Every structure is written in C-alpha cells, then in structure tokens.
C-alpha cells in the first residue's frame, strides 16, 4: 500500500435507483483517469466502516436516500477522524425549488446538485472540489502540505503501513536569527528550507509536510529515509550563505544581545532532527507520534549536556560562593587558577569554563584562550567571561562564548549555564 492514501468518492444510492454513478461509464472513466476510486453504499451502518477504512474525500447522497436515514446528522455521527474532512453533497433525484435546496445547505450539506446534471458535470464538480481542497490544505508560506494533510498522511501510515520512518525537523537558533535579521528574513529562511526539502524528495516516494513555522515532517519507508538522510544537513548548510551577511557567515556566529546586558555568541541556524519508526512502539495517534519525536529531541539534548563547571576567579571567597550556588542547582563546580587550568580541565572534562577577567584584562584573557587551544576538549567547552571592562566584542572574538558585565546577579550566570543543559 502506498504512502499517499487513495482518493475515494462514496455514492450513497439505492440498488434500485436509476441514478447510480457506478453505472455511469463516463463518470467511471473520468475517475479512473484521475486516480479516483468510486464506492457505493446503501446502508447507514456500513457507512461507519467505509468512513473509517477508506476515509473518502466526497460523499454524494441521493435525495431519495435522505429520508432513509442518510440525513446530515446521521452521516456526521459516523465520522470519527478529525483529520479527514469530506465534502457532503446532496444529489437531487427530481427537480426541487431553490428553497428546498437551500434547506439542505442550512442543515449542513456542502452543496446541492440538480437532478438534470450529466455524469460528466457531476464529476467536474467533484474534481473542482478536490483541486480546491488540495490548494487549501497547503501551507500558504511554503506551499507544502499543511497540518491537516500531514496528519492525514501520518494517520494513514499508523493504520495501514507496516514499514515507515518519520523525521521531525526544526531549525535551532531561529529566535536569535529573528532578533538579528527580522521576520521577513525568517520567512525567507523557512521558504528556502521548504524548497530544499521539496527538491530532495522530488521523484521519490517520500512525503514532506509543514506543521507551521519551522516544523517540518519527512515521512517514508525506513530505507528511503536512510537514502537521503546524509544529504539533509549538507543541503541545509548550503542555504546559510544566502540568508546571512558575509561577516556573520564567515565568522559562523552572530553576537546576540541577551537580557541583563549579556552578549552571547550564537551559532548559525542548524537543523534539529529527531526520528521515530514503525518498530519503536505502538503509537496511538498522529499527535502521540509527534509528541514522541519532540521528546526524543529533548532526551538527546539532555543526554549530551555536561553540567560540570570550572571557575577561574582570583577572589577565593567569591569563587567558593559560586561553587556552592552552582551545586545547589545540580551543577558540579570546582575552582582553579590559570596556572593549573589545563591539568584541571583534563581531569574534570567540564562543559563550562567561567572566567573572571576584570583583573587579567583583555591581554590576559587572550593569552589564556591561546593556552586553551592545547586542550583537546576545547570544541565542547563553553567559555563564559565576566568582566567590568568595556569591549564585549573583543572578548567574544578572542574566544568567549558569552560575556557577562560585572557586577552581575548569580541568577544571571545560572540562566546562561542552563541554556546549554
């Protein structure tokens, strides 16, 4: 069974009716040519199973079946899926005045077709609705299938496909990018990301959907997903040169103004990808699956976090105060000196290095950063410098990830540490 569910039209008609679309060769021919399947139903109880199993796009009800239990309330009561929204059409079996036709619309039917329409004209009405539905189901910014269509495909996979994998993609550091470049450029970044994804799945059996903002879903067989997985990050990276100015792109970071006059060196936007497969567990719904994908991202970040902190502070009393305060918040903190720094880094392997740079000044800090290049774990070390000296940009360019102006509240330091944990 394919990843994209088939399109079905259900005609509710009596077996004795003169107007049965399955007997109309022209209607059947048009359906076949456009990949649409026609089903017939004449029992209200059977309709419940048809709606569940086939999730039709359109229900056409012969008018003479209306009084046999196929009124709007009875039909809508059989619908269980909130993602499968069908169009409900009443097909006149004899000519009616406009007032009677309008009463059907008031009741809840979407359209009323006159009895004198030909099979070809009925099909044109149906096809126009399907085309319009396809347009409305797309995200207006990216033109990718939107939230309703995406969840419809997910539900189809959960119920009917045995081998599937879902990738949930978001863009990290998007808020920081928004702060520096504005909403218009954020929209452009999201559109370019969508275009990249659409090009990546072109001529494949993969489905790409857009749940809003920077939330994308990539869905397909496990093998098909694995075939394109490595290309995702490389193709996304190719977008960055187009959405950043030359200096930021060459630096591979932007300087972000955080609360309390903190200045933070933020990395360029990156793709954050989590995965779920049909073999992980039994998922109860599309929402359950998406929640698991988000939880996987949280657990991955939690697993990678390193809450060990080494502090360089010449004021021993203040250094001990910092250690005690950080340990109250579940950090493993210790105090060292510039002389013993490399030895202690090799021993502790911290995630953070907090440096008091007021007394050592910028030259002393630059010298310390050169010394840090000898430490093999430098790539995973977040350096936070605290100083009352002006020129935060100089400290950030010298090697700090975050600049905190002194004096500062201890909660300000904690906020910065918790960003990475």
What's the total helix number? Answer: 17
Please report the distance between the alpha carbons of the first and last residues: 43 Å
Hey, roughly how much beta strand do the residues contain? Answer: 15-25%
Q: What is the CA-based Rg, rounded?
A: 31 Å
What percent of the residues sit in helical stretches (DSSP H or I)? 40-55%
Return the structural class: alpha/beta
Number of strands: 16
Sequence stretches where pLDDT stays below 50 over 5 or more residues: none
Strand order in the sheet with the most strands: 9-10-16-15-14-12-13
Give the overall shape: elongated
Largest sheet: 7 strands, mixed
Q: Kindly state the mean pLDDT as a whole number?
A: 91
What do these coordinates show?
By secondary structure, the protein is α/β, with parallel strands linked by helices. The chain is 46% helix and 21% strand. The chain contains 17 helices and 16 strands. It has a seven-stranded mixed sheet, sandwiched between helices. A five-stranded parallel sheet has the order 2-1-3-4-5, with helices on both faces. A hairpin with a 5-residue loop joins strand 9 and strand 10 (263-267). The two termini are 43 Å apart.
Salient structural properties:
5-stranded parallel β-sheet; 421 residues; alpha/beta; single chain; elongated
């Amino acid at each position: 069974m394919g990843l994209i569910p088939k399109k079905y039209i259900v005609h509710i008609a009596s077996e004795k009716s003169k107007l049965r679309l399955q007997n109309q060769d022209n209607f059947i021919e048009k359906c076949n040519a456009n990949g649409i399947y026609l089903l017939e139903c004449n029992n209200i109880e059977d309709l419940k199973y048809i709606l569940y199993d086939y999730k039709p796009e359109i229900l056409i009800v012969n008018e003479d079946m209306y009084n046999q239990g196929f009124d709007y309330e009875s039909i809508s009561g059989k619908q269980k899926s909130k993602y499968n929204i069908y169009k409900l059409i009443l097909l006149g079996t004899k000519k009616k005045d406009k007032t009677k036709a309008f009463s059907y619309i008031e009741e809840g039917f979407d359209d009323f077709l006159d009895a004198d329409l030909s099979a070809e004209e009925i099909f044109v009405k149906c096809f126009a609705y399907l085309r319009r539905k396809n347009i409305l189901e797309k995200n207006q910014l990216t033109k990718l299938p939107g939230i309703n269509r995406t969840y419809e495909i997910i539900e189809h996979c959960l119920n009917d496909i045995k081998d599937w994998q879902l990738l949930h993609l978001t863009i990290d550091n998007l808020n920081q990018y928004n702060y520096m470049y504005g909403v218009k450029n954020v929209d452009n970044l999201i559109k370019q990301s969508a275009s990249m994804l659409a090009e990546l799945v072109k001529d494949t059996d993969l489905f790409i959907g857009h749940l809003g903002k920077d939330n994308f879903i990539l869905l397909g067989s496990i093998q098909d997903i694995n075939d394109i997985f490595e290309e995702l990050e490389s193709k996304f990276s190719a977008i960055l040169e187009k959405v950043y100015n030359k200096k930021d792109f060459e630096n591979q970071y932007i300087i972000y103004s955080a609360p309390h006059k903190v200045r933070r060196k933020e990395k360029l936007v990156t793709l954050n990808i989590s995965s779920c497969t049909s073999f992980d567990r039994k998922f109860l719904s599309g929402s359950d699956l998406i929640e698991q994908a988000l939880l996987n991202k949280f657990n991955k970040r939690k697993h990678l976090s390193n809450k060990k902190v080494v502090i360089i502070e010449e004021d021993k009393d203040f250094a001990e105060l910092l250690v005690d305060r950080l340990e109250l918040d579940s950090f493993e903190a210790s105090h060292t000196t510039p002389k013993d720094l490399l030895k202690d880094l090799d021993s502790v392997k911290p995630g953070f290095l907090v440096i008091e740079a007021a007394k050592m000044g910028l030259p002393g800090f630059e010298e310390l950063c050169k010394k840090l290049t000898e430490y093999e774990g430098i790539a995973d070390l977040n350096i936070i410098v605290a100083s009352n000296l002006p020129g935060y940009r100089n400290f950030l360019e010298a090697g700090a990830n975050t600049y905190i102006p002194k004096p500062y509240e201890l909660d300000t330091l904690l906020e910065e540490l918790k960003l990475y944990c």
